[in-house]
Amino acid sequence: QKEVEQDPGPLSVPEGAIVSLNCTYSNSAFQYFMWYRQYSRKGPELLMYTYSSGNKEDGRFTAQVDKSSKYISLFIRDSQPSDSATYLCAKDRAGGGADGLTFGKGTHLIIQP
Amino acid sequence: NAGVTQTPKFQVLKTGQSMTLQCAQDMNHEYMSWYRQDPGMGLRLIHYSVGAGITDQGEVPNGYNVSRSTTEDFPLRLLSAAPSQTSVYFCASSPVQGNNEKLFFGSGTQLSVL
Fold first, then answer.
1. What is the tens place of the pLDDT at every residue in A20-75?
2. In 3D, which of A82, A92, A45 has the Cα closest to residue B106?
3. What residues contact A20, with CB distance under 8 A and at least 6 apart?
4. Please, which of A3, B33, B66, B108 could form a disulfide with B48 given CB 3.0 to 4.6 Å?
5. In angstroms, rounded to a whole number, what is the distance separating the alpha carbons of residues A17 and A24?
């Protein structure tokens, strides 16, 4: 089982809807989680970053970590066509360290105008 | 401020050829790394460096070499290209000393090996 699992989608929603993107992870040892956004033919860009369990909000984006269920979520409010991209979740590997980053395969999100 | 710059953007090689993918960052980041991204596989770490003169292997290092003579540059060398190395390659750096939190990625190099 891959350490971080993510539904590849595509997930298609109408403009203005609330989007929920999810990842599950298999190893409980972690220090931090991240969400990256990747537009077509571009490099990933860091969107959200959190050390702890619970919620972290930044504008229209909310990252949620539930350690008990090993679930990572990203919510996008008032979704815009410009939010159409692939969203990658990532966490540090068990034990951390400089090589300790595991990415999910990404969910392709389409916001319909 | 250019961030992380990768060259070339596209490259086609024949099996057995060698080449170097260039990566430079102007943010004075100590940590740099190389990833490859394949459909259905996600991002996988090839090599990383926590500072000039220090490099180490990641998840998929075979067939690749790296060196880090300066803080700014972290080239990736393909020794003898194979079709399995067809992929999109990303260089990334982090401002967090000795760690890979908060990675900044370049725009990628799309490599095809025929």
1. 999 998 877 666 889 999 999 999 999 998 877 788 999 999 999 888 888 889 99
2. A45
3. A73, A74, A75
4. B33
5. 23
Q: How many residues does chain B have?
A: 114
Indicate the residue of B40, B41, B105 with minimum beta-carbon distance to A45.
B105
CA proximity to B98, closest of B56, B69, B59, B65? B56
Whether the CB-CB separation of A72 and A6 falls below 8 Å is answered with no
Longest dimension (CA), chain A: 43
**Residue B65 DSSP code:** E
The label of the residue with tokens 């967090």 reads B96
Map tokens 């393909």 to a residue: B78
Q: Is B107 on the interface with A (CB under 8 A)?
A: yes
As given in the structure block, the two tokens for residue B50 are: 């926590």
pLDDT per residue as tens digits for the range B28-48: 999 999 999 998 888 999 999
What span, in angstroms and rounded, lies between the C-alpha atoms of B6 and B8? 6
In angstroms, the separation between the Cα of residue A51 and the nearest Cα of chain B is: 10
- Measured in whole angstroms, the distance separating CA A100 from the mean position of its chain's CA atoms is 17
User: Between chains, do B103 and A46 touch, taking CB under 8 Å as contact?
Assistant: yes
What one-letter code names the amino acid at B70?
T
Copy the structure tokens of residue A35.
């969400």
What's CA A73's distance to the chain center, in Å? Answer: 6
